[in-house]
Amino acid sequence: MPSPVDLRAKRKVLGRLPLDHLRLRGEVFRKGSHLYIAGRCGFCGKVRDYLVYNLERGRTTRCRCRRAVKYEKNPLAEVIGYRYDAIRQRCENRSNPLYRQYGGRGIRCRFGDRESFVLHVLSLAENHQPPIRTVKRLRNYRIERIRDSAHFARGNLRLVSRSE
What is the CA angle 98-145-126, rounded to 5? Predict the structure, then answer.
């Protein structure tokens, strides 16, 4: 049984948060053991339920429709983001089949968040000769560590074609 929470007080706290174009609507409500609140996006107009925990800690500040804008609508950003998720799984999730080869050997992802990883790899793609600017071309490349025993970090990543 979840602990009792004053939902009205929680709503007042949420009303003072600096949210981008997200407007909170209605009262805080409970789904199972989690607290949610409805929010309407000022750009796309969609109403979604947002987890109060993520709003309070600053993990959620905007609608999902604004994700692509973060990278200036670069089509490569989504693919690179998925690769970041896969790297984190290999390094942190003990149930991942490849954990033994990565996290089990002490190899970690040293990027603070997904955005910094995406921006770094986008700069690698732009500086690659010739520059990688399409998703189709990016799919022919792997993100590889320069030193195999080192972490996934700035200065230790490169883009290598799958044929190499």
Answer: 120
